[in-house]
Amino acid sequence: MTPKIRSYLSHWTVHLPVLAVAALVLTWGRDLPPPVVALAAVLLAGSVLAAVHHAEVVAHRVGEPFGSLVLAVAVTIIEVALIVTLMTSGGEKSQSLARDTVFAAVMITCNGILGISLLVGAVRRRIAVFNPEGTGAAFATVAMIATLSLVLPSFTTSRPGPQFSPDQLAFAAVASLGLYLLFVTVQTRRHRDYFLPITTEGRVIDEEEHLDPPSGRAALTSLGLLLLALVGVVGLAKGVSPTVESGVESAGLPPSVVGVVIAVLVLLPETIAAVRAAARDRMQTSLNLALGSAMASIGLTIPAIAVAMIWLDGPLMLGLGGTQMVLLALTVVVGTLTVVPGRANVLQGGVHLGLLAAFLFLAASP
Where are the transmembrane segments (predicted)? Predict the structure, then answer.
């Protein structure tokens, strides 16, 4: 075994998926004591990070536009797996879990990741510069899909409560998926230059620092470890979910906090990558990650949940409440004013982070 392969196999992203599956085999179908639940939660979080890492390795090997799809699909599988796992065991309290998770993802990406990226970029360069054509198109798509999937169910009349009828859900799922795929095509093919980093003077930078693509063997190894990590995430989530739900309930927090926890867990790798890109003067890359994550969270999760509802019992509550609609509307207005000029300072970053803080506070204290 060569030193390079030995070093690769000693990496934590290789060990964690294996440990997660081993823990899943040992704990499946058993009542877990608190120390074991804590260990399973650590392995679950580590498996999510490992899965995203291996998805990025595969994505780097296959190139664009397939690379973006690999990472988005991997993250969506994790998100959908956590949502469906909790919905199958949560009863009536989990009927709005998909809505809570997707809305939390939108608020975290469009205010949290975007806000901290702008703040880091503005502190480094005084003014954070990005391409308004690409960023505006991405933000408009996120606003459209979010409104279609999360706002309209509160106003339709075919079904009581904030839910779609089966036909309406199918339409929203197909429209969301279609818009996401159209955006990927525009981003990677027809108008790729709109999504490339630019300098303060407006010059497009097309010389990103890329490592050499991984070998075919390394990519196949990462693909196998990606599948192994996803199995570990799905299985461990089922074992940890009762403890998470009971902990939220015992703390006196509303059930929607569970959705926030899922969104934070799933979006942690994207947050780290976006902040690193902003620190390297690649503001457009940061905003691509933020808005691309928001778009995938809605455009891929809603169709997947719509298909899962064929087998799941009970209604699917997608419509937002009044407080959530106000926060979403404010996010759309503030985000539009942020992206239209193509330049932002620390104030815009602070405003978005203030919106995120308001969302987190009101999620815990509605």
Answer: 12-29, 35-54, 66-90, 102-123, 135-156, 168-186, 218-237, 257-275, 287-312, 318-339, 346-364
Other Cβ atoms less than 10 A from the Cβ of 30: the count is 9
- Amino acid 288 reads N
The 10s digit of each residue's pLDDT in 347-362 is 999 999 999 999 999 9
Asked whether 179 and 145 are in contact (CB, 8 A), the reply is: yes
Shortest CA distance to 346 belongs to which of 130, 128, 199, 200? 128
Which tens digits make up the pLDDT trace of 293-341? Answer: 888 888 888 888 888 888 877 788 888 999 999 999 999 999 999 998 8
- Residue showing tokens 């699917």: 316
Q: Residue 171: is it exposed, middle or buried by C-beta count within 10 angstroms (0-12/13-18/19+)?
A: middle
Nearest to 200 by CA among 278, 123, 125, 275: 125
Residue 166: how many CB atoms within 10 A of its CB? 13
CA dist 327 and 63 (Å) reads 37
pTM: 0.82
Supply the CATH classification number for the domain 3-364: 1.20.1420.30
DSSP state for residue 128 in the 8-state scheme: E
**Distance (Å, rounded) from C-alpha 139 to C-alpha 339?**
8
Q: How far apart are CA 365 and CA 359, in angstroms?
A: 10
**Helix, strand, coil percentages in the chain from 3-state DSSP, rounded to 5:** 75, 0, 20
